[in-house]
Amino acid sequence: MLPALILIIVILVVVVFGGISIYNGLVASRREAENAFSQIDVQLKRRYDLIPNLVETVKGYMKHEQETLEKVIQARNSALGARSISEKTAADAQVTSALNGIFALSESYPELRSNENMLSLQEELKSTENKIAFARQYYNDAVTNFNTRLETFPSKLFAGGFKAKELFELEEPEARKSIKVSF
Questions:
Q1: Which of 32-36, 61-65, 152-156, 158-162 tops mean pLDDT?
Q2: Is the residue at 4 inside a domain?
Q3: Is residue 37 part of a domain?
């Protein structure tokens, strides 16, 4: 009788500690996904901070292209207000489209293409775009890991209070194109 009682207690302790370990793993995975999302925010903020400098640089050259410049500023402002993943995805596509408009128009202004500030901003945007892509990839990897843990056994038994997270996916085909920053 005593060995059976000890065995039952050991099994219960293993199950309790296993459950605690699984639950804590889910919490850690959720936090990693949240951190990855904030890394996207950091890089998008960096991108949005570059936009006023870009607009100021091109403003003097593109006197007749005021509408394009206004679209960039409007896209930036709406992106700064985005909170959820779907809002950020849509805002990011809008900013990308607006920036593509500026870079396409800048081809018509040879003085602008050779401007030192413009070349510096071009390099900064290129670097930032790479960081944004990496942050998106890291976020999607973390979310995929978290969502997989939610759906697999035995984690699924302890995942009652957890909800699957949304991947950062570009919804518009235009947004899938990279920003052309060659001058």
A1: 32-36
A2: no
A3: yes
User: Which of residues 150 and 103 earns the better pLDDT score?
Assistant: 150
For the segment 107-118, the average pLDDT, to the nearest whole number, is 74
Cβ count near 27 (within 10 Å): 12
For the whole prediction, is pTM greater than 0.90?
A: no
What gap in Å lies between CA 115 and CA 182, rounded to an integer?
13
DSSP-derived letter for residue 174 is G
Report the largest interatomic distance among the alpha carbons of the chain, rounded to a whole angstrom. 92
**Exposure of 152 by Cβ count < 10 A (0-12 exposed, 13-18 middle, 19+ buried)?**
exposed
Residue 183: inside a domain, yes or no? no
Please report, for the domain that includes residue 56, its CATH number.
Answer: 1.20.1440.20
Per the structure, the complete domain to which residue 62 belongs is given by: 15-176
Q: What is the pLDDT of residues 4-38, one digit of tens each?
A: 999 999 999 999 999 999 999 999 999 999 999 99
- Taking CA atoms, 149 is separated from 14, 27, 68, 142, in Å, by 20, 11, 45, 11
Residue 63 CB partners (closer than 8 Å, separation 6+) = none
182 is a domain residue: no
- For the residues 57-76, what does the mean pLDDT come to? 78
